[in-house]
Amino acid sequence: MISLSGSTRAEAGSSFCVTATNYGSGLTAKAFVGGQSIPVTVTQNAVTHTATICIKVPKGAKGGIEILVADATNPDHVSHNALIRN
Amino acid sequence: MKTNAPGNFGCETYLKSWELGFRSGSTLEHTLACPFCKPLIHGGTEDCRLALTDEVNNIRRNKQRSRRKFLTTSIMGIAALFGTTTVVHSFLQAPAPSPLLVAITNETTRFETIYSNNGVPGIISYFAQSDAQTRTNILEWIPRKRRWALLDLAVTALEDKNEQVRIKALIILMNHTPKLVLKPHVNALSEIRQNTNNRDVRSFLTELIEEIELS
Fold first, then answer.
1. Which of A70, B26, B161, B169 could form a disulfide with B103 if both were Cys (CB 3.0 to 4.6 A apart)?
2. B97: pLDDT confidence band, cut at 50, 70 and 90?
């Protein structure tokens, strides 16, 4: 099953990244900030077989960040959640 | 899930007519005004009506956005509401539904089955027996399916032993739950704020309680 690790606190206006390990083919990620979908950058490292999932937290964003990740074989999606400090 | 509305109109029929409206270049409002769609709006199941209300509100809020972007941002909510990827897949005209969409749909269908068979106690019991990731996912399902009867679960989860579950509960309450729905829970939230040792939970709850009281 996919594992996600990363901070549980984020700063508005900064980048926020989590690391995914133990994933299979077809890795997909989505992110929500304050309930709104935002673009995600996924960078995979074939050597270490880890993926870094990054977002830019908009300035003035409130509440939390939700990152949802899945692959072709995992039946359930995995999420990582963080709170935004302004 | 019950998908057949009175008058033999079902959610799938509604979604297909909506899709046709988009493809022909008309606006959502135009599609909804068509005689074929009207019975769906007024005679549809509760889930159909809620989905429709949401989508109309979304499109009004996002008028300036492109149609494609609107569809993409709405797609997960629609999939969850209708418990199927088939119709949603045709919206996007993609070669296959994404693994994420399939995963979320499968999961929400599982929770829906438990809820249909055993109601609120069934979900609470499932929550209590589940691992941290599943507990997090159950919380996500509450606003997705508008099961506000389970909001007590999210409030209780603010004291969960797992930090990710606590954060998810806060996010559900702050970002995904209408303030009006939260009003009856304000005393429980105040109590948690008073008793928690977690500084972040305390400050986020203070902000949330102020917003609820002002609403």
1. A70
2. low
What distances in angstroms separate CA B63 from CA A37, B59, B78, one per listed residue? Answer: 16, 6, 19
Distance of CA B206 to the CA centre of its chain: 25
Structure tokens at B184: 């009856």
Strand A9-11 relative to strand A78-85, pairing: parallel
Q: Is the pLDDT of residue B81 over 80?
A: no
Check if the beta carbon of residue B138 is closer than 8 Å to that of residue B130: yes
| Residue among B194, B191, B152, B187 at smallest CA distance from B173 | B152
Does residue B199 surpass a pLDDT of 80? Answer: yes
**Best mutation target, B167, B182, B210, to test chain A (most A CBs within 10 A):** B167
CA–CA separation, B213 and B215 (whole Å) = 6
For the CA atoms of B54, B210, B198, A54, the dihedral, rounded to the nearest 10 degrees, stands at: 40
CA distance B76 to B99: 12
- On chain B, the residues whose CB falls within 8 A of the CB of A72 are 99
- Looking at the complex, does the CB of residue B203 fall below 8 Å from at least one CB of chain A? no
Q: Which amino acid is at B127?
A: F
Q: In what order do the strands lie in the sheet with A36-38?
A: A9-11, A78-85, A64-70, A28-33, A36-38
CA-closest candidate to residue A68, choices B73, B100, B92, B168? B100
Interface of A with B in 2-61 (CB under 8 A): 8-9, 26, 28-30, 32, 34-37
Contact B195, B184 (CB under 8 A): no
